[in-house]
Amino acid sequence: MFFYYDPTFILLIPAILFSLYAQTKISGTFQRYSRVASRNGYTASDVARRVLDMNGLNNVRIERVRGNLTDHYDPRHKVLRLSDTVHSSTSIAAVGVAAHEAGHAVQHSTGYVPLFMRNTIAPVASFGSSMSWVLIMAGLLMRWFELIQIGIIFFTAVVLFQLITLPVEFNASKRAIAMLTDSGIITSEEITPAKKVLNAAALTYVAAALTAVMQLLRFVLLSNRRR
Ligand SMILES: [Zn+2]
Questions:
Q1: If exposure means fewest CB atoms within 10 Å of the residue's CB, which of 12, 56, 73, 109 is most exposed?
Q2: pTM score, two decimals?
């Protein structure tokens, strides 16, 4: 990323600090509960299968994907992908992640509105995340106000995407805890640790949203100053 010196950079500092905190929190919490086996001994892929079937989602496949914390639900292909570290693990962390991803599959199948909004805005946000920087930097250098404005509009799509991600993520975790509890997959003493893992994961999304909002504010201030 390209930062040149300007005082509005100060706006980003709290967001950067919070992002660092969120990163430390997720890796610490995840590592800790990756070492704690869940009492009932189901693997994450067993859990995902059970929870999906419970919701009538027998058509959703479960696959293994490389990497660490790369777990995700792919709505287009109806595939729930669990990372190497999670897939066959029986840890509280792995079970929590599997249920969370299954929560996204349930959101998708039940037409959960924020998820639909998020998927709709995703292509614009993805285009905007690279284009907005180019437009804004070029606009600032050339003192071309309209170019900055267009860049800001694209960046607003990025901010909206990050904000709409928050209810989607919190809701998937809420569903995960409910499904794990109702099905008896985890015991009542394991609810709090499972929540800790999912809440730590949610912090990284909050950090990303905060960073995007502060960045937008910064762009608006810069554009007004150059006008
Ligand atoms: Zn998620």
A1: 56
A2: 0.91
